[in-house]
Specification:
By secondary structure, this protein is an alpha/beta fold. Helices cover 44% and strands 19% of the residues. It has helices at 10-19, 32-40, 53-58, 74-87, 103-114, 126-160, 174-188, 205-214, 226-229, 250-253, 269-272, 288-298, 305-318, 327-336, 342-349, 355-366, 386-395, 427-435, 463-482, and strands at 2-6, 24-29, 45-47, 66-69, 92-96, 122-124, 163-167, 193-198, 218-220, 234-237, 256-261, 278-281, 368-371, 374-381, 403-410, 413-420, 440-443, 447-453. It has a 6-stranded parallel beta sheet, sandwiched between helices. It has a 6-stranded parallel beta sheet with strand order 9-8-7-10-11-12. Helix 6 packs across helix 12, helix 7 (174-188) runs parallel beside helix 12 and helix 12 crosses helix 14. The termini are far apart. Residues 1-124 form the RCK N-terminal domain. Pfam families: DHH, DHHA1, TrkA_N.
């Protein structure tokens, strides 16, 4: 790319020297002595007034891809813009804008003196640039501080134990599995042996594909098991005790040394944990994988394409295909760019669907009941809990439907997933309102879930009666929370 730097003062020279080597850079400088000095330092220089056509032609303005105007005089800027555009209407122009000058000032000067409108492609305000640089530096300081805290905590654990148990939530999703794998890598750098565990099931076909394709070593354990008790230090990622983890008892909570999560902190959580527990919970971040990527970047820990792919996919799922991104999420994407194996990613995102999942999807379609723009579907007794969420995602694609709820009975509980694309509804709040008192419910604005113990429903005489009672209760409570009357 051919770049013309107009002005060989302190700023112009610094810009040219920074670009030299990667780009074809020419400085245009009016002062003879300064031009000679620049040339002697190895820079390509054209001596002359850059606001004149003859000088620009000498510098081959017709071949330039970018022109950088470094002067701060508004009259000179306007004149130069007019001359540059007269000789190369397609060249991009970057202007270093003085503090007391606006784009409108330059445009008005051009109209008054030259009766023309000239587009400025890029503008840099020195004060704004400095403020942005300061903010970015402060953010890096914060990231480094967080990373050092984690590293210090891991070293502290290493002084009294050689192992770390990493706990995910009961039914881990891609964000949870990727985050656990990232923490394991960080812990291993200080010499800790790690074991990643969960208490429920990995049934969603994409989640199972992620485990298999990426070769993740995850172990299913039960509450009170030796696999938990033998570890003196526990870390939790993308989950919180008494939230979506059932394998830890009260005595285990005192061994929790690290919690990293992006969900809102649960009530009275700090009271249940050891005072020195490192808690990094950031509700403003949309994926725990983003937080873990920040740790890896700040600690300068090399990662392979397998972990990069896992973190990328974890972010992809929890940010709703990158539709909502915080500053931390965006930085994580930048960090992972170039490290992701897209062949592996494709195998994870589009795995073969299991027969069981296909049957549940079919059942959800056949059993759907429509209430205006709301669909409620009962998939009955199932073993694959994650298929309920997949069915909810699928039904939301039906024409005219904006809100979906799918439920089924898994073992001794009712599992519910809900989705919406209605911007007036916070489905997580709806789920909490509808089912919070008889079980647990919550989620985000567009996706939510609930779990209800069968309890009194077990008194039903047979499975048919049980399903009917459950469907009536779930439908009534959900529609009531939505402010709708029952009746198709």
């Amino acid at each position: 790319m051919k770049v013309l730097v107009l002005g060989g003062g302190v700023l112009g020279r610094a810009i040219a020297e920074a670009l030299m080597g990667e780009f074809d850079v020419t400085i245009i400088e009016k002062d003879v002595i300064r031009a000679q000095t620049l040339a002697e330092s190895g820079l390509q220089v054209v001596q002359g007034d850059f606001s004149y056509t003859a000088t620009l032609l000498k510098a081959h303005i017709e071949r330039a891809d970018l022109v950088i105007i470094t002067t701060t005089d508004i009259q000179t800027i306007a004149k130069t813009l007019h001359v540059v555009r007269s000789n190369n209407k397609d060249v991009s122009v970057l202007v270093i804008l003085p503090e007391d000058v606006s784009v409108e000032d330059i445009e008005n000067t051009l109209k008054e003196q030259y009766e023309t409108e000239v587009k400025i492609d890029y503008i840099i305000n020195p004060r704004t640039a400095i403020v942005r640089a300061v903010v970015e530096t402060i953010e890096r300081v914060g990231e480094t501080k967080n990373a050092r805290k984690l590293l210090n905590k891991l070293n502290e654990i290493k002084e009294r134990s050689d192992t770390l148990l990493i706990v995910m939530h009961d039914n881990p999703d891609p964000d949870s599995m990727a985050s656990a794998s990232a923490l394991a890598l960080i812990a291993q750098t200080v010499g800790l042996k790690t074991q990643i565990v969960y208490g429920g099931d990995i049934t969603h076909h994409q989640n199972r594909a992620m485990v298999n394709v990426l070769g993740m070593e995850l172990r299913r354990v039960s509450k009170g098991s030796y696999e938990i008790k033998r570890h003196s230090a526990i870390a939790i990622v993308d989950a919180q005790p008494n939230g979506n983890i059932t394998i830890l008892d009260e005595s285990d909570l005192k061994k929790v040394e690290i919690i990293i999560d992006h969900h809102q902190i649960l009530q009275n959580l700090r009271d249940k944990l050891h005072p020195n527990c490192l808690i990094d919970i950031r509700p403003e971040v949309n994926a725990t994988s983003s937080i873990m990527a920040e740790y890896l970047r700040a600690l300068e820990i090399p990662i392979n394409d397998t972990l990069a792919t896992a973190l990328f996919y974890g972010m992809y799922i929890d940010t709703k295909k990158f539709s909502k991104l915080s500053r931390v999420d965006i930085k994580a994407i930048e960090f992972l760019t170039g490290k992701v194996n897209y062949d592996l990613l494709d195998k994870i995102e589009f795995p073969d669907i299991s027969t069981e999942t296909a049957e549940i999807l079919a059942r959800a379609i056949l059993n759907r009941k429509i209430y205006k723009n709301v669909v409620i579907s009962n998939v009955g007794f199932i073993a694959n809990r994650d298929a309920i969420a997949e069915a909810a995602d699928f039904l939301l694609r039906l024409e005219g439907i904006t809100t979906v709820l799918v439920f089924g009975i898994v073992d001794d509980r009712i599992e519910i997933s809900a989705r919406t694309r209605d911007v007036r509804i916070n489905i997580g709040a709806i789920m909490k309102e509808a089912f919070g008192e008889i079980g647990s419910g919550g989620g985000h604005a567009q996706a939510g879930g609930a779990r209800i113990p069968l309890g009194i429903f077990k008194l039903a005489k047979d499975k048919t009666s049980l399903l009917r009672l459950v469907e009536e209760a779930i439908t009534e409570k959900f529609l009531e929370a939505l402010g709708m009357k029952e009746g198709p």
